[in-house]
Specification:
Elements (H helix, E strand, L loop, with lengths): L6 E2 L13 H6 L7 H4 L6 E7 L5 E5 L11 H5 L8 E7 L2 E2 L3 E8 L3 H12 L7 E5 L3 E8 L1 H13 L5 E4 L3 H6 L10 E5 L5 H5 L2 H4 L3 E4 L4 E5 L10 E4 L12 H11 L11
Antiparallel strand pairs: 1-5, 2-3, 2-4, 6-8, 6-9, 7-8, 10-12, 10-13, 11-12
Length: 272
């Protein structure tokens, strides 16, 4: 519907072809490669209505961007994984959809060279729609905007790369959003990273044995693993949750919120 009106959800929802719903995307904080430029779900959700564990219909936020009254329920529901209530209505900001895109695949000499390139591109001032790393050394880039301008921008980027770059079909980002590189039998883990710790991760035999992809200019690792034996903190996106190590930094706040919204435990807790 948005596409028919020249608009889109800039956080690049994932797994839409596989049947992801709008509510599920919010509950799982689903964001794709292009959220590098635009931000994640929480940056675009401005209103929410949900039914809590007591059967109350609760509304938070509003229909417009500028509202500052009351508790910020929209942000609370992002990533809540269905533990606080049933989402019934969501209000988003939307953006004009870029006229066209140019996607590039850049071959580097290896992991260190790829990470150096990502650092250079991130500091270049060019607004890339997406920067992904397919280990060990392939960097994928996406540019978007008005047709004439994006072509000129792509030419300038290629001339400054000092590495072999090929223009590729923009459909590769559809594969990225749908995790087409992930074996059907593998659950998906979301691992927060930074470019600085990627070399250490890549030295881990358990990580190296798993299908993986680094997105958001190296700030998240999507990791396919039958069992999480990596010893790292990860969040399950789909698949068995019992095998996932979870951090408890916000556990106390989360328990207090759940005690208010779902005191009888009508909804499962994260990890159950």
């Amino acid at each position: 519907m948005l596409e028919q009106n020249g608009q889109f959800l800039p956080f690049d929802p994932v797994l839409t072809t596989a049947g992801a719903t709008v509510g599920g995307t919010v509950a799982a904080a689903g964001r794709g490669p292009s959220s590098l430029r635009y931000g994640g779900v929480r940056d675009f959700l401005i209103g929410v209505r949900f039914v809590d564990g007591r059967g109350r219909l609760i509304r938070g936020g509003g229909k417009v961007v500028k509202n500052a009254a009351g508790f910020d329920f929209p942000k609370l529901m992002v990533g809540s994984e269905g533990t606080l209530g049933v989402l019934t209505e969501l209000t988003f900001k939307v953006f004009p959809r870029p006229e066209s895109y140019v996607s590039l695949s850049v071959a580097t000499s290896g992991l260190d060279d790829a990470l150096n390139l990502i650092s250079e591109l991130s500091a270049s001032g060019v607004e890339f729609e997406a920067i992904d790393l397919v280990p060990p050394g392939t960097v994928l880039l996406r540019l978007g905007g008005r047709s004439a301008a994006v072509r000129q921008k792509a030419d300038r980027v290629v001339s400054g790369l000092r590495r072999k770059a090929l223009e590729v079909d923009d459909a590769l980002w559809q594969e990225a959003r749908e995790f087409g590189w992930l074996p059907a039998s593998a659950p998906l883990l979301k691992v927060p990273t930074t470019p600085g710790i990627i070399p250490q991760l890549e030295k881990s035999a358990s990580i190296a044995a798993c299908p993986r992809r680094y997105s958001l200019a190296g700030n998240v690792c999507w990791l396919g693993s039958i069992e999480n034996q990596t010893g790292i903190a990860a969040t399950p996106y789909f698949g068995p949750r019992r095998s996932v190590a979870r951090s408890g930094g916000a556990a106390g706040f989360g328990r207090r919120v759940k005690a208010v919204l779902d005191p009888s435990g009508k909804f499962v807790s994260a990890g159950d």
